[in-house]
Structures are given as C-alpha cells and as structure tokens.
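Blackboard transcription, Thursday session:
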Amino acid sequence: MAVGLEHYLILSAVLFSIGLYGALAKRNAIIILMCIELMLNAVNIAMVAFSRYIVPLLLTGQVFVIFIMVVAAAEAAVGLAIIISIYRSRETIDATKIDLMKW
Amino acid sequence: MIGLDIAFWVLAIVGIIAALAVVLLSDVFRAALSLVVCFLAVAGIYITLSADFLAAVQVLIYVGAISVLIILAIMLTREVQRGSPSNRLRIPAFLVAILFLGGMAFAMLNTTWQVSVAPPLEPTTSALAGLLFGEGGFILPVEIAAILLLAAILGAIVLVREK
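(Written on the board underneath:)
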C-alpha cells in the first residue's frame, strides 16, 4: 500500500497525542514546553500533508506552517524566559508547586 | 515511489520513538536531545512531502535555535537532578491522549479526502516567496509577524534581566 494522505495524518495525530500526554502529565515546566513544541510540529505535518495532497499547486498550507513556526519561536523565547524568571524567585520549576494564582 | 515509502516509514518510526523518549525518559537533558532527533525526523518528513524550503527552515529554527534555547534553560535551572516526574494526573492524561488519538484516527480514516493527482510544485522557494511578498499575498501577516518577534524578544529580555 503506497503512502498517502492518511498515513501522514495518522503520524501527525500520534505525535500530537504523545505531546498532549506529556503536557498534561509532566511536572517539569521545561518538559511541558517541549511537549507543546512537539504538538506544534504535529500540526505542521498535517498542514504540509494537506497542502501536498489536496491543493499541490497553491502552497497555502506551507505558508501557514511558516507563520506557525514564527509564533512557536516567539512562544519558546517568552516561555523559557518566564520559566527562568520563576526559577530565580522560587527556586523550582515544578508546575505543581507554582500555585501563586490558585485559590 | 518505493524509496519515498521506505523513507516515510523509517522517518515516522524514528520520530515516534524520539517523541516517546521525550515523554518517558527521566533525564531532562536526554529528553531534550531526543526532541532534537524528533525535529530532524519531522524535517525529513517535510522532504518526503516535497516541501524543501520548509525542511531547511525546520532544521534552522527548530534544530538550530529552539533546541539550543531549551538546552540553555535546562542548564540554567537545577531541575536536572530531580528528573522528569509525572504528576497525579498521569493515568487520566493517558486516557485523554488515547481517546483523542482514537477520535482523530476514526475521523481521518472515515473521511473521503479529495486527493488531487497533480504533481507537487518543485522547488517551492520561489513560489513561497511570491505568496508571501507578492501581489494579493500574505504581506500584512508578514509585517505583523515581524512586530510579534520584536515584542517577544523585548519581552524575553525584560523578563530575564537582572534587577
């Protein structure tokens, strides 16, 4: 069976689910951020696959992927800066112990 | 086409194993390194989808920049000794992920996609440049992305500056 659109979509869904599990179940804030990057990559694979198989000549999916990468880079920079800033003031980046805004 | 199929399967298996290692390894630093492997596998997947420019951008941004940022953050925090433990929600999170995967797979396999038989555009770089900067393209989002990046850089500098 030749590799088609469904194979890429299933791969994207598997990667997204792994990232979802990690983002929900991990305590280390850096690991949570890494899992969010994993989920964004999974979405990018789905976008490029749709662009390749449904509208091969328009490339709109690839343009969307470029913008997702820009936002992901900005998110990683700001997120890691927030984590380092929290580590400086509280000496921990355990997401279950950062509960200042919890009531 | 056989070569493309083999490349897809190899890259998909490597990517999924690396992604599982990110979630399951207890060493944070090794998890970050396997995340780099996963990003490289995704770049290879882009090449099998004939998105050559995106593969290069993936290697430059994710493998080159974001992974360095993550490893730097791991070095600056001393959480490495404590490893990567799970919280109390491990089993519910696993169930949510499995249910999500099942629902997505069901929806994807039961939809009849209108697959086009046209060959893909190659190389994509000049076509993408035309779409991003050309007439009737995405020039406004490009400008907004520049402002977003500037704001993110300034925000990151302000957040981590020594008081």
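Lecturer's comment: The CA atoms of residues 31 and 44 of chain A lie 20 Å apart.
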